[in-house]
Amino acid sequence: MTKQAAAQGTIGSVAHLIAQIRQKLVESVETGLAPLGLTHAQFVVVVQLANGMAGTPAEFCRLLSYDSGAMTRLLDRIEEKGIIRRVRSSKDRRSVGLELTDKGLELYPSIVPVIQGVNKRLLRGFSKAEARTLEQFLQRMLANEA
User: Fold this and answer.
1) Average pLDDT for the chain
2) Are 67 and 61 spatial neighbours (Cβ–Cβ below 8 Å)?
3) 8 A C-beta contact, residue 35 and residue 121
4) pTM of the model
5) How far apart are CA 97 and CA 58, in angstroms?
6) Measured between alpha carbons, how far is 35 from 48 in angstroms, rounded to an integer?
7) I need a surface site. Which of 14, 59, 74, 146 has the fewest CB within 10 A?
8) Rounded Cα gap, residues 49 and 98, in angstroms
């Protein structure tokens, strides 16, 4: 096997492993959040709003790689649960922002331990230094695609 073929096999394996890890992560988050009545995608919206990382449907479309129709349906479901609300911009009535309701703000602290538990299970057996190194490697991979 040539070095190039070996490298391509490793690259394919890395992509495959990341996809498998993502699937397990989503499944674990969904299981943990089920008692709170949230899905993984809904959790992402709540957490990003709580942390000020996104605030419009368009930002969430980019973040979740959803088209606008799918995003509208997702936001409708979260809004029906009373967790978020759409707010029209006072400067441009065509522009809509999103914010957590009081219920959403109360829900957020319940989400944090679920996610911490998932992370802890996924990193079981890793030292703190290894976990930091893994995070740095993943950040470098993301930066390579930026």
Assistant:
1) 90
2) yes
3) no
4) 0.79
5) 10
6) 20
7) 146
8) 8
Do residues 89 and 95 make contact, with C-beta atoms less than 8 angstroms apart? yes
- The predicted-structure confidence for 109-136, as pLDDT tens digits, reads as follows 999 999 999 999 999 999 999 999 999 9
Residue with tokens 């449907």: 57
Domains along the chain with CATH numbers:
21-145 (1.10.10.10)
Beta strands in the chain (DSSP E): 84-88, 96-100
Sign of CA dihedral 44, 50, 54, 56: positive
- What is residue 92's three-state secondary structure? coil
Q: Which residue has the tokens 């674990």?
A: 28
CA distance 7 to 13: 10
The DSSP H or E segment spanning 126 is none
- Measured CA to CA, the distance from residue 50 to residue 69 in angstroms comes to 23
